[in-house]
Amino acid sequence: MSIPRYLAALLAAISLGAHADTTLLNVSYDVMRDFYKDYNPAFKKYYDAKFKDNLTVQQSHGGSSKQALSVISGLEADVVTMNQSTDIDAIAEKGKLLPADWAKRLPDSSAPFSSLQVLIVRKGNPKGIKDWNDLVKPGVQVIVPNPKTSGNGRYTYLAAWGYALKQPGGNDQKAQEFVAGVFRNVPVLDAGGRAATTTFMQRKIGDVLVTFENEAEMIAREFGRGEFEVVYPSISIDADLPVAVVDKVVDKKGTRKAAEEYLKYLWSPEGQEIAAQNYLRPRDKGVAAKYAKQFPAVKLFGVEELGGWQVIQKRHFNDGGVYDQIAASIAKK
Amino acid sequence: MAASMTASRSAATTEARWVRWLLTGLALTFIGLFLIVPLISVFFEALRQGWGLFAASFTDPDALSAIKLTLITAAIAVPLNLVFGVAAAWAIARFQFRGRSVLITLIGLPFAVSPVVAGLIYVLLFGAQGWFGPWLAEHDIKIIFAIPGIVLATVFVTFPFVARELIPLMEAQGSDEEQAALVLGASGWQTFWRVTLPNIKWGLLYGVILANARAMGEFGAVSVVSGHIRGMTNTIPLHVEILYNEYNFVGAFACASLLALLALVTLAVKSFIEWRSARLAEEDRRHATEE
């Protein structure tokens, strides 16, 4: 093949595949892929019919904070769907890609559904794990992803903290001791939620996995329902999963209308139903009632009770914060 | 006479029989455990649930686009490295100039730098917050999180293969034949096409094959600049990671087996080239002694 023909063939190969009319890129975190796999086709059907368009939704998944950094560095996300608001705050603050009050633009502080941390134990619950205080017992191995790198791990850390704080006579010092006790029982600290699940289910390490309620459903689909049991603790943390349109990107690409519709439709009955089917707790009262059986009532507290994400991040998870102190105290022993 | 000499030499210079067996056995066990068993397990896992699922993994549009992107990337990165490698090797082997040793060191740099760092370099240069980010955004040129970034990162990590292969070869061959050609009236291009290239072609092919294998298999650097958009900016190695994270083990191992197959083909071609050039060298020697 001559060189000009080689180059022509190469160019043709590169330009292929860019023929859709409207294309949205949804940058999301690790364990949301299953939900959007169901949601994207449903939304496309609705959107194409209503606006006479041909929509393509592209997905990018990875650790929540890593994905936020990619958006800051120029990954052209029309919408971001994260597992905690600090990641979107970072995009607003460091990337200046959307206004700081992004959360006020959609209902429920821009979180169309929520999840909570549950305890997943092996079949028959051989260690008799019922609640958070069972995680600090000697001989119990707990699988949790690293709170420094994973929102999932941060929610677990805070759920345990809140549990200890709400016990009779609970205070910050007792809570710190309790959380240290939990992390002392962690044999492997994975970087993200998915890796932690693989450690627990595939490599069969640990007695209890602490992760999002919707990840439990994912495990059931992949590994079979008889392999494990879900234990709901007496109290857990309300994990709001926020979404936002990235203004700078949609204005440049001219996709604002499609991006806004895409997020708004998450609150529609169909969007809420798909969420419920993926074991994400819906906001819609009707849908919630319909799926009430699969969402046992659990006493929940929000991150606001611990001061909100910005305060929590600074106090617990920044370098030299409480989590680092706990990690150092465990390393010493 | 000759036989007795080798016999006495081997008795004096080699180890006892059991030591030889032990060492060979250790080496083989090691290779078996760390290379052959994993390689077999890739194909085993890929075919675990039958050929149907295995084949279906390749007809998935995301897998197809990953394969396409990998081929495109290699099709750009390898020719670039070929041209650059020959030019650099020629300059270094044929000429003495100031900064020559610096150039040699620089060519080896991508081998010394971690691929993740290689990827981050491009994010720092071309990312939205990077040096050229604002200018690129103004002119609507996408490099990072698009095909150009992936190609750039791949070119970076495969930089040394061709040049490193050719420099020692060309230095050993010397420039006598080229000088003869020039004296006989050949032009520069004629000398290159008719004398230099035939002399280095096997080494060149070897370098190109290694560069190609690395270009298709690179993970770290490409992962940093890819953005992981499904069906858009995933190469085969990135696609393998995604499938694995989705518990699609058959799909992950099927795509991994494609890369393993590439490695096996590379090894076969490499051995063939080595065998071929050894034979050519021997023929040359025989010709020389006959004359």
Automatic annotation (TrEMBL), chain A:
Keywords: Periplasm, Signal, Transport. The keyword Repeat does not apply. GO terms for biological process: sulfate transmembrane transport. The keyword Transport applies. Residues 1-20 form the signal peptide. GO terms for cellular component: periplasmic space. Belongs to the prokaryotic sulfate-binding protein family. GO terms for molecular function: molecular carrier activity. Transmembrane segments: none annotated. It is found in: Periplasm. Gene3D superfamilies: Periplasmic binding protein-like II. This is Sulfate ABC transporter substrate-binding protein. Pfam families: SBP_bac_11 (PF13531).
UniProtKB/TrEMBL annotation, chain B:
The keyword Cell inner membrane applies. CDD domains: TM_PBP2. It comes from the Bacteria. It is found in: Cell inner membrane. The keyword Amino-acid biosynthesis does not apply. InterPro entries: CysW_permease, MetI-like, MetI-like_sf, Sulph_transpt2. Keywords: Cell inner membrane, Cell membrane, Membrane, Sulfate transport, Transmembrane, Transmembrane helix, Transport. GO terms for cellular component: plasma membrane. Residues 67-274 form the ABC transmembrane type-1 domain. The chain crosses the membrane at residues 21-44, 64-90, 102-123, 143-163, 204-229, 249-269. Coiled coil: none annotated. It is a multi-pass membrane protein. It holds the Pfam family BPD_transp_1. One of its GO terms (molecular function) is ABC-type sulfate transporter activity. NCBIfam families: 3a0106s02, permease_CysW. The complex is composed of two ATP-binding proteins (CysA), two transmembrane proteins (CysT and CysW) and a solute-binding protein (CysP). Part of the ABC transporter complex CysAWTP (TC 3.A.1.6.1) involved in sulfate/thiosulfate import. Probably responsible for the translocation of the substrate across the membrane. This is Sulfate transport system permease protein CysW. It comes from Chitinilyticum piscinae.
